């Protein structure tokens, strides 16, 4: 009895350290994040953002999903038009993201977390905010500043969003290569997933990577244009059109600014691609830009697979895996039409956040699989040891634990819109009423258009719920 | 052997316990001491920028001739923040204008307080509490002759091993009547931060 004492103290010490400095809720281990978010999303769909916030629940700062809960809360506060609160929440989330980024290259606490994850599942690790979510964080933060009439604060956030995209571009290739290498060393490849694992091809659509977000570029362009920095605006519109060349509003913006800035070579090539451009007389007119948020992004789903794992000392053996996946095809949203007294405008897609999320998940698959292989092998060893030492009871208990704890990490920012559309129109200055045709319903928007200035409208259409915010830039 | 393990474990537990719950201490420090808590724009940068700019302005020969017989009236336009941080640029201009005022060579009008001054004058004239003969008159204020304005921009780069931030602060003095820029200078700051290789 006494012989085991130090060992027991050691175990207790490790457990107390684990729970003291980096905690995870037990519910996270056995109930997926997607099912925890279901009631929140249901309330969000009804437009009851206060209820959604209450359902979200508080998480401790030491909790490994703290940063994600901040993102969800900030987004719900943004939808509830509570800009100062949303700004504060997102600022806290940004601090967390920065801390994560500035952490040491080798983190001791990460080792403990991974240890926890090996005996349970990936939900025990700290949530790492993917690049596309960081981009959206800064985009919403920019809008928060704007709605509080702080254009220069909004521009700071836009610059941060651009930094995120630049860093993502730099890190992307290295990380992908490294992850695939590690997976190869663990005796598996992503090819072995074929069949059991949904390909997500239809969800990914035509996005090339999981971080370049034309919406962020477009918002950036609008804000630069509003602050009179046309050259910066032009660069961002050009970046956006590389991603969405078929968006007719973007085409007009690029042509308009190329003409204004006398970019002759660019103008020639853009006119070749998008047709002739004739500068219009904009005297006494103002521009109205509508950002239309459509619906809510899907949550990740848990998919169970049986996969062979080949390791020299075990031979080929089948193990059951759990992996996160975005199931099903993209929802096709009908276009929303905005009608002024003279003309009707159709909304046009500027980003499909669902596709960014799916692509991001697909890029993460190699490293997810590597961790999964380590985990199933470790759990299998525990089961064998228990069955040897405690007989059938141990075997059954271990098997039950292994099945129950085999949960995929379905954490992701789940209150984001599925898609964002844009509309851009020139309207005569003064009070205007826009007729909106959305999901078979007739709504209207009142705007006060200022001559030669941009009026920004943020329009949310979630299910049958709609709302809008107007700001003169 | 067992005892050694026991002692080590107890020791480790104590260290971790102490790490997770240590007492906070309040101290006074030197306000001008170099501050390197993180790589973001901090008090040292603010002090450095303000000191260098005012020194350069006060020592420049052009300003010497401008202020030979008079104390020109200036106003500070806001600084444009073109960095990727939320910086209180008013704090920088406050430091600069305070230092310039302290030199005794310039006088300032404060555009940020025009409304408050108007309120006060309105009260003196219409409030019925102030003797009309002793009330401060409307329309006697002196207009600014020079405008001080500037930009603060930054370039941020980072990789897995380090981050680097470069700030450039430009300040200009414009003669409001002629529109000429009489003086300009810039200050640069470079900060790098190497990531620690092992940490908690």
What is the helical fraction of chain A, as a range of percent? 40-55%
What's the gyration radius of chain A in Å? 25 Å
Oligomer: heterodimer
C-alpha end-to-end distance of chain A: 75 Å
Domain tally of chain A: 1
Instruction: Briefly note the CATH topology name of chain A.
Output: Serine Threonine Protein Phosphatase 5, Tetratricopeptide repeat
Point out poorly predicted stretches of chain B: none
Span of the ends, CA to CA of chain B: 28 Å
Largest sheet of chain A: 5 strands, mixed
The amount of helix of chain B comes to 25-40%
What best-fitting shape of chain A do the alpha-carbon axes yield? Answer: elongated
**Overall number of strands of chain A:** 12
Counting helices, strands and paired strands, the structural category of chain B is alpha/beta
Mean pLDDT of chain A: 84
The first-level CATH class name of one domain in chain B = Alpha Beta
Q: How large is the share of residues in beta strands of chain B?
A: 25-35%
CATH architecture of one domain in chain B: 3-Layer(aba) Sandwich
Short description:
The complex is a heterodimer of chains A (473) and B (200). With 473 residues, chain A is α+β, with helices and mostly antiparallel strands. Helices cover 52% and strands 19% of the residues of chain A.
What does this structure look like?
- The complex is a heterodimer of chains A (473) and B (200).
- Chain A has 473 residues and is an alpha+beta fold.
- Chain A has one domain: Alpha Horseshoe (Serine Threonine Protein Phosphatase 5, Tetratricopeptide repeat).
- Helices cover 52% and strands 19% of the residues of chain A.
- Chain A contains 15 helices and 12 strands.
- Chain A has helices at 5-21, 26-30, 33-45, 49-56, 66-79, 83-101, 108-119, 131-147, 151-185, 201-204, 214-226, 230-243, 248-260, 264-274, 353-405, and strands at residues 106-107, 285-294, 301-311, 315-325, 337-339, 344-346, 348-352, 419-428, 430-438, 441-449, 454-462, 465-472.
- In chain A, a hairpin with a 2-residue loop joins strand 9 and strand 10.
- In chain A, helix 6 (83-101) runs antiparallel to helix 8 (131-147).
- Chain B is an alpha/beta fold and 200 residues long.
- Chain B has a domain at 39-109 and 144-194: Rossmann fold (3-Layer(aba) Sandwich), CATH 3.40.50.
- Chain B has helices spanning 2-20, 43-59, 61-66, 89-103, 114-126, and strands spanning 73-82, 107-108, 146-158, 162-175, 181-194, 198-199.
- Chain B has a 5-stranded mixed β-sheet with strand order 2-1-3-4-5, with helices on one face.
- Chain B is elongated, with a radius of gyration of 26 Å.
- Chain B starts with a helix and ends with a strand.
- The interface between A and B is medium-sized, with 28 and 32 residues.
- Strand 1 (106-107) of chain A pairs parallel with strand 6 of chain B.
